[in-house]
Amino acid sequence: MKIVRRAANFLSRSTLGWVALLCVLTIPIAAQNPPAPATQAATAPTNAPPDRIHGAIILDGPWRFQIGDDSRWADPSFDDSSWSPVVLSKSLADQGFEPYTGYGWYRLRVQPQQLAQFNNIVGNPQLDLLVTGDSVGQYSVYFGGVEFGHTKGMSDSPDMYQSPPLIVPLAKPAADGTIVIAIRTWAGPRVSIGRGLIDKVELGAQADIAERLTSATERRWDQQVISGMVVSFLFFCVAMLGATLYLAQRKHSEYLWLSLLCLSVTAVGCADLAFELSLLPWSIYIVLGLWTGRIFMAVTIEFVLRFTESDYRRLVRIVQICMLVLPFVYFVHLQQVYEYLSICAEVVFCALITVLLFRAWRRGRPEAGVMLLPFFLAASADSIDTVLGYAARMHWLPDKFASHRFHFGPIEFTTSIVTYTVFLGSLLAVILYRFIHVSQDEQRSVAEIEAARSVQAMLIPTKLPSNHNFMLESAYLPANGVGGDFFQVLPLKDDSMLIVVGDVSGKGLQAAMNASTLVGALRNELSHDPATVLNNLNHVLVGAGTLPGAAEKSVISFATCVCARVYPDGTMTIANAGHLNPYRDGREMELAADLPLGVIPDMHYEQATFHLNAGDRLIFLSDGVVEAANAQGELFGFERTQQVSNESARYIAQTAKRFGQTDDITVVSMYFAARAAHPVARKEPAQV
Description:
Elements: H1 29-32, E1 52-53, E2 56-58, E3 63-67, E4 84-86, E5 102-110, H2 112-115, E6 127-133, E7 138-143, E8 146-150, E9 166-169, E10 179-187, E11 198-205, H3 206-224, H4 226-248, H5 254-276, H6 282-308, H7 313-325, H8 327-331, H9 335-362, H10 366-393, E12 405-408, E13 411-414, H11 415-459, E14 470-477, E15 485-491, E16 497-504, H12 508-523, H13 530-545, H14 550-553, E17 559-566, E18 571-577, E19 583-584, E20 587-588, E21 607-611, E22 617-621, H15 623-626, H16 637-644, H17 649-660, E23 665-672
């Protein structure tokens, strides 16, 4: 029997069913091209007369065969002399029949001399008939016009199941000593029957037939189940491992996609097992196979995309959509179109995965190169099987080329299972290597963050100097990790206060180290003039960038900084290097917009002078306040910042955090309460 237009490719490669659909980086043929049932496989063409083999004989024929269905054909008195004679050991196509669909009947009259061969068996045991069907073909066995047994799918509303060998107790001979065996067969409308639905009929003693059934069942497991089950179990184990790795490293989504694609392998393996055990009908099995296979392809591409961190996202999305839409072509009965598109889909799938892995390897990811060769072998083996299977179905090559099998003892396996197992091993090794490597990086990162926090503890004063002239308050709320925010409040000998607030670009230990460099230079600074302080800090930062190896190590960055000196009489001199302007009594101060520190050498910063009144409040803050963003992506912004700028430092910081903190938040508040201050009208900024 032959399934034309590939109603479902699973059965033609049922041994692959557990793995072929679900290999980690190559889509199995079983899922891509709906498989033709095993009815296409031809048995050895022998037309020998019935032989006695350990108390059993093979009823090879000649049988009488007729296409169609009529309940009268089960009657032993029916005249079947006009039916065509056939033998079961040859395909119907080799005996002159065109492929057909639906019902067909076999009839055979067993003569008394054939039954006499069992007369010498001790105990005169019950004789049984062992009928072996071909794949999804369903059948009923009749003696004397009465049905004695049938396969699971042969009912009033027939459906195709995988048909295991069926034992039927032989009826008593008629008065003339003969027994007429009538077998009614059926396969679904999408199945083109060319081979025939009955492979073998054996007659023998009950014990011998039971032994043959056991042997056939064991052989079926060896050939079609065990190797696939083992590989599917391995995929399930890798799926659990991938889920565990993802729980340990949530930021690495490739582990999650690895788990999903391996779970799809397990799901298809369960479907294969259910079908092999006749628990799942063909109609459901083929639908599961088509969709699961395409989902597997989409998930596999997504896994490789995330594993390689490729920028081909748009191309990948287009390919994934095409893969998921492809099964609709089959369900609208365009089987030939579906077959061609399936082959094209497999080529595109394999090419895309290969390109993604190759480009990642060229970019310096050795683990992608490790997976490249095993994947190419698996993809090649799968593609070769596809091409050979298609050529055999089109009769361009003999049927023996449709499947290539090897043996490990009694267990059969295919080239695809070998290559998929090798690929799974390489995938497992690469994923474990990636996990260990990432774990080591995270441990180094944790150590780096702890070191950065230790450094930053020196940059963020825990207690601010206050006196009867100045009341200072600060709030520092770090975001995830460690940033480059810093501030210093230095009391000077003349009772003035030097306030410096800055933000070094970048995060982590490097940013903290750059900030510590600036703070160290600030504490050793002899001049306390704000413009001079910024000039010197700029020189320090630019000079550090000229150190040997600094560029290669990306040691140096830039920094924004504002420096203000407030005297007891209310005079304030201030200079700004690209930082946010401070707020005075709820209004943003207007300062010259100079470049940040470390951008260009020999930068000269402008300085402005203001006079504070008793009761004035100055607010210095970092961009973590302005850049706070809520779940909708809306920024806290300058308007909201101005609205809260006359509040305490802690209130401003907490308000920005509740809105949606995205960066370190630093706020320094100074309340000027000097009694010695002389009220002076606020002046416009003046250059020094």
